[in-house]
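hey m, so remember when u said the tokens were messed up on ur end? i reran from scratch. heres the input so u can diff it against urs
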Amino acid sequence: MTRKNMQNTTYKYILVAALVVITLASFFLANLLIGLLSVNAVKTGAIVVVIINLAVNFAMFYLLFQLLHAITDRDKQIEQLNEELNRLKTPQEEEEKTETITYNPADIAQRIIPSAPQNLSLTDFCDKILMGIAHSCQVVSGIFYVKDSATSTFNAVAKYAYYSTEPVAPVVEGEGIVGQVIKDKKPIALNMVPAGYMRVLSGLGQGSPRYLYIFPILNKDEVIAAIELAAFVPFEDNQKQVLDHLSGLVGKIILKLKQ
């Protein structure tokens, strides 16, 4: 029970006690005056006093009763308002708890994969993967590299919001950041990369993301592709988990589309 509710309850008890006291006093005074009238046969003035006393006591009784009723009504309104606020608050809290509990990187990675990928070309499939990653992981730009079996280089087959006056050069294993990721077969996260390393072009102008995440796509133990992503904010651990799951799913599809 809140402090305000305790105060209201105390006021109610005081008002009830006052009502009881006034009622008893009224009857006592009325009986006393009636007794005096019967004993001393006091004139009309005493009768008037009795009537005035009863009227005043009744008025006080009525006012106290109305005040008690008003306090009770206010308490009911406050209680109803609190119940309504709780009803509005509970679904939101449950939704937040559900989102926290049901967050599953594997499920998110699965939703990034387009439906019926076997009906897409390799370029279209990679485009959709980059678009899905951008929407799920706050990525602003990306390049999808796929290994050319004939030359063993990794060529950019798809780009997302990437701007450059020069074509993306093929990547050789061990050369550059992407080449090092391919060689090590492990992802790399870079923070505060130099301005201009990768540019993003939109209707609002150009920008240079400062955070990179590059990860390989493997089939068994062989790197068959790599994805380079850029963002204006650091990549969080749960986003990296999504991309890790995505790597295993995408590798099998790329092999089928290259056949």
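this time it looks ok to me. The chain has a mean pLDDT of 78. if urs says something different then somethings off w ur setup not the seq
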